[in-house]
Structure formats: structure tokens, C-alpha cells
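Before a colleague's protein record goes any further, I have to sign it off. What it holds is a sequence and that sequence's fold in C-alpha cell form. My question to you is simply how this chain folds and whether the C-alpha cells agree. Thanks in advance; the entry in question is below:
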Amino acid sequence: MAKPKKAQWPWHLLTGLILIALAYALWFSTSLISYEWRWNRVPQYFAYQAEVAQHAVDNGTVKAIAAEGDNARVTLESDAGDESQSLVARDSLRVGEGDLVSEGDELGVTRHWAAGPLLWGLWTTLWISVVSGAFGLLIGLATGLCRLSKNPTLRDLSTVYVELVRGTPLLVQIFIFYFFIGTVLNLSREFAGVAALALFTGAYVAEIVRAGVQSIAKGQDEAARSLGLTAPQTMRHVILPQAFKRVLPPLAGQFISLVKDTSLVSVIAITELTKSGREAITTSFSTFEIWFCVAALYLLINLPLSQIANRLERRLAQSD
């Protein structure tokens, strides 16, 4: 006889109460320091209406101003008799009909929506993560296989690389790449940042790959070789597919860590998400609001990665 299933709602209720208590504790803490929340200042750092000034192209006279919705079309007649038109926002008009204007005088401004610094920082974080993650995966795969090689030179060099990178802070490696290697080879800061992140990630991926390959029973290799497969064919078609299923969780965790590690490239003046947040704070004075938004954007990147990895892991488990 099946046991009755226990109700789960009390535990969900407890979870909700704990979250509410944490939110209240945060609010109470900020009230003790008399912090004034200014969430209305935050949206402009995601998107804002940029203004572009429109100037007179020649000396002349304002011949006509025609309203077009929220805009106004200004028709200028130059001293030579030529006409030119400019479309500006009606509430920004600096001239009237019949006014004399000189070349370069401002007529008004046009407005259009533009991405704010937080969105640009998010984009920079994304492309740096993708590029450095792809190169890190390739470096890690090659290094992990070298660590399992029977060639002593390949094995020793890969071991030195892994231990050197894992034994030193990423921040120090970024400084070395930018100020030393980057200066000698005349590399851009973006190249130096991506290279440092890729090599750092590659060292950890190498250990994940090595552990995954070594976890496969030796009988798999022996069976494949008995069927006539060469060592590279055995690794590619038999060992690595099985190892991939086992290393997927730690690989996903490593790439999630990589996204967060991109915040360190701000020390070499790359305006990624964290640096964009710091710059926004200097102009808005909304410290808590901006940092909460930055944290939420990192979550926006990492939560889908975690869900995709979990779904892929379940699908691979079903294919066994």
C-alpha cells in the first residue's frame, strides 16, 4: 500500500516567510542609516532618450516652421537662396519664423531611444564571457588530454600550466597580461582581458576533463581497441562522449563562475557590467539600487545557463 504523500505547502509557506523576513531585515538596516531609496533614477541607466543637436548649415533666414506631431520641421533659406530643412523636437526649438541664423547656430534637438550604460555593460560582459569561454573550453580540452598523454613533455608542460594558473589569483594574471604581455606585444585591453580569462578557465576545464576521462572504466578503452579502433578514434567516439555526461555539471559551474569573473577585467578599464554600475553610482548616488540591478543582471545571465545545463544533464541521463 502506497504511503500518503505529505503536504508540501507548509514548507513553501516557511520559505516565503523567510524571504519576507530577509527583505524586512534589509529595509530595516537601510532605515537605520537613513538611506533614501531613489528607484526612479535607475531606468535611465538601462535606456534613455538621447538628444542630438541640429545646427544651421549656412547663414540665412528661418523661412517656415511646420508642426509634425511632437516635432517641428524648420525650413531655412540661405543668403544664396538655397533651402534646407531640419526636423527637431517642438519643445526644443531655439528659433522662430523670420529669425536670422548663422552657420552652426543650434535650431533644436532630435531625440531617440538609446541603450544606457548598464545595458552596454551587460553586452560587454556577455561577449567577453562567450569568447573567453569558447577559447577556455578548447584550451582545457587540449590540456586535459595532454595531461593524460604518455608523452612526458606534453604531460609535464600541461601540468606546469595548470598548476601555475590555478595557484595564482586571476586578478594578478589580468595585470600581467595587460601591463606586461600586452605592452610588449601591443595588445588591446580587450584582447588581454579575454586571453587572461580564457587561460584561467582552460586550466580548470583541463582538470575537469582529465577527471572525467579517468572516471571511465579501462574496459571501455580495451573493448574499443579490440574492435580495431585507434587510440584517437577510441578517445573521440567512445571515451569523450561518456566523459562529457559526467563532467557537464562541473563544466556548467565553471562557466557560471566565468561570467562572474568577468567583473575583474574592470581593473584594466574595460567597461563591463560591474564598471558600468560603478560609473552609474557616481552620477546617480543610488548605491543600493544600482548594485541590486547589477546583481539581477548577473542572475539574468546565470540562471538560464544553470537551467539549460540541468535540462541537458537529464536528457543525457535518459539516453544511457
